Each structure stands twice: as C-alpha cells, then as structure tokens.
Amino acid sequence: MEDKYIVWHIEGGLGKNVAATALIGSLKQKYADRKIVVVASYPEVFLNLPNVYRVYRVGNTSYFYDDYIRDKDTIVFRHEPYYETSHILKQKHVIANWCKLMDLEYTFQQPVINMNHVQQRNSQHWQREKPILLIQTNGGPLQAESDYSWTRDIPFALALEIANKHRETHHIIQVCKPTAQKIPGAEIVDMQLSATDLFSLLLYSDKRILIDSSLQHAAAAFKLKSTVFWIGTSPENFGYALHDNIIAMPPADHVKRIDSYLFDYSFDGVTHECPYFAITEMFDVENILEHI
Length: 292
Fold this sequence. Notes:
Blueprint: E1 4-10, H1 14-20, H2 24-30, E2 34-40, E3 52-57, H3 64-69, E4 73-77, H4 85-88, H5 94-101, H6 117-122, E5 132-136, H7 156-166, E6 171-175, E7 187-189, H8 195-203, E8 205-211, H9 214-221, E9 227-230, H10 235-238, E10 244-247, H11 279-282, H12 285-291
Parallel strand pairs: 1-2, 1-4, 2-3, 5-6, 5-8, 6-7, 8-9, 9-10
Helix pairs in contact: 1-9
C-alpha cells in the first residue's frame, strides 16, 4: 500500500519552531495512518521526535515534489498563525491558532524537546561550581542591526540589578548578542550555538531570567519554571502558564505608532515608536528584585 503523508511547513524564528513541536503528537493522533514530513526553518528541533518521519530545511527540498506531492496522497499545511485575527488581537496563543488552522483540538499542548544520548552527554560542559543564574538579555538573530530591541530585551540597568543581587550565591551566565552590553563578571554566551547546545544550558541552570525568545519556549518544553519579561509582545500569544510572566506596565502612549500596521509594535523594536521614557515606566524594579 502506498504511503500517505502530512507535510507541515513552518517558517520563522527558533522559538516559533520550538512552539510548533507541541502539535506533532496531535497531528499523529488525528492522522495515524500518515507519515509526518516537516519542512522548517530550524529542522534540528524536530529531528529527535519519534512521530516525525522526515525533516527538511526550508529552501533545501531536493526532489520534494516528486517524493511527496506528485500523484501522492498528501495533506499540506502551510499556514501563518501570526496573521490570524485572534493572534493580532492578542486573544489566542500561537499554538491555539495553529490548532484552528489545522483543525486540531487545542488542549494547551506544550512544546517537546528530545535530546539524544550524545547531546545529553555534550551538555554536561555547562556544569559550574556554583548554581547558575541564566539571564537572557537579548534575543533574535545575532547579526541584527541593533544590539537592543526595546520590545523584547531586558533593559540593561534592570539586568545588572538582577545580576548584582545574585553574585554571591550564583554563577551568572548572560545570553546576548555579540554587540550587546555585557554584565560585568558574568560568563558571556554570545556566539552561534546549535539549538540543542543552547537549550541544554537550561538543564544546568538554577534560576532562569528570560525574554520572549526561544529559551522561554524550550524551558516550557523541559518544564523548568522561569521568570519571563514581556514588553512589546504578549504572553497571551507566546507565553506559558508555567512561567512567572512579568508584563511591562502599559505605556502612557506618548509616541504615535506611525509605522504600525496589524501589530502594535514590531519584534525588532523600531526606535521612534518606543513609548517609554524611563525604565521605571516599564517596570517596578524594586518589586521585581523582591519577587526574583
């Protein structure tokens, strides 16, 4: 009997790809007789999932049409959940919107990350003498034009306060872009890592201070409660109830969103649209330090 397939095409950043892993099990449950083929911008996060038959990188799909499309019994999913009304209005999680688009039941599915034996072994290089405080101050592409995105990154002064509070008890590791401000005395991780090497850092951390980026999705997959800061994006769209989600105070709307179209703010944080004039307008710093 000829094989039947599901082809799921997923574009976007590493965090979005990690979020998508939450629905592989649901797809297999609904389409038990079909082999799941994933075409993704970050294929490595899908490689160790037992319900995935094949994984391809976007743009590297040699002979794909003949293998999976032409005269084949194949269902193709290529949707963009970011442009669903309920996502734009911050009413549903990205995973819930994928469920709607693919006619799956949303049961608050969580991301899944499986690490093979070698990856687990290699991850031990993150062990340190003191407990690790992992703080991610920046996210997004390492080669981005700006070293600070006000919509997602932790303001450096706040990150420094958090680090100073834990210097005596913890070994501080800062994940950031190469051009970002560095926390004095912290171990800096600003080079390109494989997804599994980056995520394994979570496994050896005692406390995690994160932003809306891939690490908070991976922490949810590992069931590691973390503190996650939200400024121009929303936990309603991208967050998890497991985490302590600290949401920035609503801005006084000093600045007009001249370049905003369907979303209030862009991921990369256009400078002239920042509506805050001081960190204290974003967060109650003293309260956060007590909370953490």
